[in-house]
Queue: 2 jobs
Job 1
Amino acid sequence: MDTNARVFSAPGKALLVGGYLVLDPRYKSYVVALSARMHAMVSTARPMDQNKTSITVCSPQFNNEKWTYNLLQGQLSVDGTNKSKNLFIECGIRNALDYFDIQNSMGFDINIDIFSDPAYHSSQGSIMKQNGMKRFNFFNSSISEVPKTGLGSSAGLVTVLTTALFSVFDPNLDLTIDITLRKIHNLSQVSHCQAQGKIGSGFDVAAATFGSIAYQRFEPNLISDLPERNLSAKDYNVSLQHLINDTDWKFTVEPVKLPDQLRLFLGDVNSGSETVKLVTKVKNWYNLNLPKSQEIYKEINAGNMAFIASLNEMNQLSLTNPEKYKVLINNLNKSNKYEDPIVLQMRESIAKIRDNFRLITRESGAEIEPPVQTELLDTCMNLNGVLVACIPGAGGYDAIALLTTEMTNLDSQTKGKEEFSNVTWLDLQQVDIGLKEEEVVAYLNLQ
Ligand SMILES: Nc1ncnc2c1ncn2[C@@H]1O[C@H](COP(=O)(O)OP(=O)(O)OP(=O)(O)O)[C@@H](O)[C@H]1O
Ligand SMILES: C[C@@](O)(CCOP(=O)(O)O)CC(=O)O
């Protein structure tokens, strides 16, 4: 590795409220950034052939799989030695080259190593390697074969990859500058959206960049209106630069923080759901059932807003009346039956959201909160220290989310119980910060 290496990391996410509605720019969502992060270490080296530049992305944890792309006379081609396609990597590289208008060989090759923190994947069959600063799970399988927990690895990957390439093409890159962060965000959204088939709201890329946020999306046509790259590379590059640098995306990212002494638990539920299929079914149901479906969305949105308001009230109370706040937290620690007006409001708002998603589940055939998850969430609501339990993101059979007091020990309350036999509590906390630069030494000599 060259001494010019740099490392960037970005957090995973949990969409606590706002699933489906956030696909429409009118509705606000609440996104918690997580302590599990994706990382990209980038370095450059002189190529043997000065007329050719290659960009190689390696995933040391997943069988050391490599994806190489060659830039020759302004054309980027996929290297014949790649064992599989990785659209997230390919779109990230193509858009970064287009944005910086890199036409010719740069006189060096670019190497990027990707690392993902343990919580992104089920740890079964892995070996942990560490160096006293970082620890990562290593698998003997390729990335597509290892079950994921749904924390947004692809959004994190695209965001750190884009940042790594920014740092090569603009060596003065400084992530503390807001406009720089926005450009990286915009470019990452374009790449992630193209790779994902233009389905998502972009909340995951926004959290990877900006951390925990109240998020309202940009208009989807910002990206879908880009010209076809295949028709004219020049048109595409100019439009892309204009979109990234000079266009107001009109999205909202307000920094948020879970109230003091509360924490988010995510339970991985050992099966999985396909977000794309769920979204397609819900969209069909929505369009076929207007105006009733819009009324249901309004109900859910009222629940979402009330939930966010109750988090804000708790934050306020912890600042303005710490004594009263302490009593509230202590009472919650002792019993889940404790009723305080703010806690009641929070529980009622989640109940309203869940009621409506169960209705959509029945009517649309999209299993957002199927009966087994209802049973599990209701059981969680009886555990001590639990304020609310819900299905994060698209719902389905992926995961459950619990907001609890910091003192709550879910392991001891659920261990050995049949109802929780499929649930693995992930080792995670909420974090405030999004994209950041890391120390290179923290990634060396993992063993
Ligand atoms: N460490 C990695 N190395 C290489 N590619 C990765 C890595 N982590 C994720 N990816 C890419 O991201 C894809 C997974 O993205 P996908 O959007 O399906 O899941 P996710 O983002 O983790 O979860 P979700 O979309 O449910 O939030 C992988 O198939 C692979 O292409
Ligand atoms: C259904 C949706 O609103 C949320 C999907 O969330 P997740 O990928 O299941 O965490 C889609 C989106 O916003 O991209």
Note: The chain has a mean pLDDT of 94.
Job 2
Amino acid sequence: RVFIHSPLDKIPGPPPVSFAKGNLPQLYDRNGWDFIKGLGEKYGGVVKINGLYGAKMLFVFDPAALSSVVVKDQYVYERSEDATKSTRLMLGDGLLTSQGETHRKQRKLMNPVFSINHMRDMMPIFYQISRNLRDAIASRIDNGEKEIDVLDWMARTALELVGQAGLGYSFDPLVQDKADAYAEAIKALVPTAFGLRLYRPLLPIALKIGTPAIRRRILKLIPSTRLQRMREISDAIDAHSKRIFEEKKQALARGDEAVLKQVGAGKDILSRLMQANMTASEEDRLPENELLGQMSTFIFAGMDTTSGALAHTLQLLAEHPDVQDKMRAEIVAALGGGQEIPYDTLVDLPYLDAVCRETLRLYAPVTTVNRTAQEDIVLPLSEPIRGTDGNLIQEIPVPKGTEVIVGILASNRNPALWGPDAAEWKPERWLEPLPDTINTARVPGVYSHLMTFLGGGRACIGFKFSQLEMKVVLAVLLSSFKFSLSSKEIVWNVAGIQYPTVGASGKPEMPMKIDRVKNT
Ligand code: HEM
């Protein structure tokens, strides 16, 4: 690698920390914000990153390059082998691990299940759980303002929502002070997996050793607390998913009455998916292991993302009390003294929508995703970049095997597209016409010119679900409570999905002061 000339040699980028580790310690450091933000600020839309032992990777946020990676050439840029293998070990065979034709087939069956019509049907579940959350918080602040771990409650709520609306299963009635061990395990998944991230490239080699049973025995002997915790978490998710799946299967076999008696009365995503699968043609039908794998995938993909986004929104509202008051006034007016805002009114509330969009733009919960070029391919650019030799580069020949990092946050914060105030949190920007530069840039994201939920065939399938979840939870909480900052310093950590801690502690949490809203 060191001596062979590569077409990527002249792409500018940061110097490596060391030959062996390249820039990976900076990229996979939980405090690596400055490095990630710096890539977006100091370089052009494509940056060369050094991987392990001289490997060259690309960090991409140029809109034309992004379109090629996630839309036009998405089947050339698949998820990398180590990412797929580690996710399969954690979650089984779901959407996040399938590729090519299998992935297309799974999406075909599942896209309708996540449609807006189904989301509407789920409104009563969303409201009921949000009210349970409200009552749980209210009972803890009976004697006035109290400091509460908001992240814990958001995570429990997100799990319960994905449980009831996604799987037709209740994990946690949101009553006790501590969630059950399963919820705790899931909450630890992202930080634990991120801590092992540097070793992930070794996984494809490790998986060639012996049989799964032998590998499991070897794994148990490795003296790494983090690795053993990862094994426990993955086992817990697997056992729960299997149990829920079996119960569902039996209810479906017993007929409509048994289905109706289940949590969510058979309206949840899994029940609908299982029903759609039963009536699908033979070639479209998914095998049982692929249905089972979707369950852990929904829990993993839907929990920390949305709960982190909600916690971040509440923190920003506490930092900007004027925005909090304005948003509350909009919600209270829409409630008109009632308990619920109907679906169509809620999704169109302009200020609530602007706050959600702006938070998801500036603080996208997933900051990057990785892909690997499966063949040699040319990466187009919308703007030429200047190479290290001073020449302009119009397009980049990408060799097979190159790892490409999709710069979600870098695209969302790109001042060339969003204007000089791109790095500021300004909900108002969504209430005015957006700059022409963003309207014409053709960013390939599924949501409001943002890469937050990605784009193309692998765009987040749960993006409407998470929008609705954020809006219902915020509407219910803001109409009852006032949120202010705790005196403790909150640090957001870079990880596969970003999470908050108090200072440098490793525990995901976000204490905030909560009080009742007067006069409501
Ligand atoms: C704010 C909340 C959320 C954000 C920011 C988010 C973001 C993303 C991103 C960036 C991806 C692409 C990952 C990759 O290809 O490597 C993704 C995929 C996915 N998300 Fe979400 N997500 C959110 C909420 C949800 C929810 C609530 C669910 C389910 C109920 C969900 C289910 C999925 C699934 C199943 C995939 C894999 C899709 C595929 O590969 O076809 N997500 N999400």
Note: The first helix runs from residue 24 to 27.
